[in-house]
Amino acid sequence: MKNLLETLMPWGPVFFGLLLFAPMLAAVLDTVSFSAAMGIPSLYLTLPLGAIWGLVAKQRGQWL
To answer: How far is Cα 45 from Cα 17, in angstroms, rounded to an integer?
Structure first.
């Protein structure tokens, strides 16, 4: 269990971007009635954004 946590902890920002930021941003887009192009759900649009933001935060070592 310790090895698993030591392996996953550095990837925390990516998990945050995918599992928290992306659904939150999708909910905001749905609330403001953002119409997705070609009927693509807003979550599909925000998952890559969350992944990129998480990878950038992981690389830099900070969020901002």
So the answer is: 13
